[in-house]
Design goal:
The protein has 236 residues and is of the alpha+beta class. The protein contains 6 helices and 9 strands; from the N terminus they run E-H-H-E-E-E-H-E-H-E-E-E-H-H-E. Pfam families: Acetyltransf_1.
C-alpha cells in the first residue's frame, strides 16, 4: 500500500535589522517589494530611506533560508524617540497568509522604546481594491494586531517636493511594548509628532496651513481617545 509523503513546512524566515544588512539588500527590498506595494506618493525615495537607517529610522527584514528578502518593516523615530511611525510594512505576495506580517509587527512593537507607535493606512471608504492593494484587508489585518483609530482628519505630508500630499488616510495607534489596554493617547505628543513629520517631509510645518491646522486643532486636548477600527465615522 502506498503512502503519501508528509508535507514539509519551510523554516520561518529570519528577522534581521534593516540597518545591519548591505545596501544592495535594502535596495532589493525597496525595488522588488515596497515599490510593488505602495503608490509613488506614499513612498519616500530609496536614498532617503538608506540615509535614515541607524539615525532617524530603522526596521526589520525577513530573510528566507537562502538569504532572499521575503518581507520587511520600516519605522521612523520622532519627538526624540517618543513616537515611532511604522512607515512601511510589506510582504512578498508569495509569502503572504503565513503570519509574517503579524510577526514583523509584534517584533517591532514589543521591542520599541517609544511611548507611542503610529501607523498610516488607506481608508477603505475612499481607496479601491486593486491587484496590488486591498484596503479592507489591510484594515482587518491591523485590527487583528491590536491597532486603534485616532479621530483625526489625517493627511500625509508630501514625502518629497515633486509628490503630493496623500489624503483619505487613517492614523492608527499600535499597542506599544505589547500594552493593548490603552484607551487614550496624549494629544500634545501626537501634535508634536505631526509638526515634526510635516517639517521633516516638506521642509517646514506652517501652523496656518489648513491641513496641519485642522490636525493640530483636533489634537488640542489633554488625551485623544482611541477608537475601534470599525468606527471610521469618527474621522469624518
Amino acid at each position: 500500500m502506498g503512502t503519501s509523503a508528509e508535507q514539509v513546512r519551510p523554516p520561518e524566515p529570519t528577522l534581521v535589522r534593516l540597518s545591519e544588512v548591505p545596501a544592495p539588500v535594502v535596495e532589493d527590498f525597496y525595488v522588488r517589494i515596497l515599490q510593488a506595494t505602495f503608490p509613488p506618493d506614499e513612498l519616500e525615495p530609496l536614498e532617503s530611506l538608506q540615509e535614515s537607517l541607524g539615525e532617524t529610522g530603522d526596521g526589520l527584514l525577513a530573510l528566507d533560508a537562502d538569504g532572499g528578502v521575503v518581507g520587511g518593516l520600516v519605522h521612523e523615530h520622532y519627538v526624540d524617540g517618543a513616537v515611532q511611525l511604522l512607515a512601511y510594512l510589506a510582504v512578498d505576495p508569495a509569502g503572504r497568509a503565513h503570519g509574517l506580517g503579524s510577526r514583523l509587527v509584534r517584533e517591532a512593537v514589543t521591542t520599541t522604546t517609544a511611548t507611542l507607535v503610529l501607523g498610516e493606512i488607506e481608508d477603505p471608504r475612499s481607496w479601491p481594491v486593486t491587484p496590488t492593494s486591498d484596503p479592507p484587508a489591510r484594515l482587518r489585518f491591523w485590527d487583528r494586531n491590536g491597532s486603534r483609530l485616532l479621530p483625526l482628519p489625517y493627511v500625509q505630508p508630501a514625502l518629497r517636493p515633486v509628490l503630493r500630499r496623500v489624503r483619505d488616510l487613517l492614523l492608527i495607534a499600535l499597542p506599544s511594548r505589547g500594552d493593548d489596554t490603552a484607551e487614550t493617547v496624549p494629544g500634545p505628543l501626537v501634535a508634536a509628532f505631526l509638526r515634526e513629520y510635516f517639517a521633516a517631509s516638506e521642509g517646514r510645518a506652517d501652523p496656518a496651513d489648513p491641513d496641519l491646522a485642522r490636525l493640530l486643532a483636533a489634537c488640542d486636548v489633554e488625551r485623544l481617545p482611541l477608537w475601534s477600527l470599525d468606527r471610521l465615522d469618527v474621522v469624518g
